[in-house]
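Project channel, design review

CF: Before we commit to the Enterocloster lavalensis constructs, I'd like one complete example in the thread so the newer folks can see what an input/output pair looks like. Taking PTS system, N-acetylgalactosamine-specific IIA component.
RD: sounds good, go ahead.
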Amino acid sequence: MIGIVVTGHGHFPSGLLSAIELVAGKPENVTAVDFEGGQSQADLQTALDAAIRGLEGDEVLVLADLVGGTPFNTASTIREQIPGKQVKVLAGINMAGMVEAVFSRAMADFGQLAGMVAEAAHSGIVNLESLEGPGEEPEFEDGL
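CF: and here is what came back for PTS system, N-acetylgalactosamine-specific IIA component:
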């Protein structure tokens, strides 16, 4: 099974993983690496390296919060330095992308999954006004 590491600033990664657990239960082979104030880039690199190595399988998808941020840059730097692991790094993760990653990884190959997650994260951002018709309220099903 494809492993997933979520990383980003503050407690965003562990918070996102906590939200996934509320919706879908605790996913297997998924971990979060927070980058908190006071940590150095070297600390983050050590934590990311350990997280990637600690996951089962040889394919790991690293989902970062911001392109160009320290977690994304660090993951990008170490992705080819971990023997026996094939690592892909995506930035801009949100709840929609995370749900896609967790639920689709069993059905998609590694290359497809990265594209599916990026598309889900992108399309998961919606302006409420675009859902409303003239003079009507949008209809929603019950939440997750």
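RD: helpful, thanks. The first strand starts at residue 3 and ends at 9.
CF: The chain has six helices and four strands.
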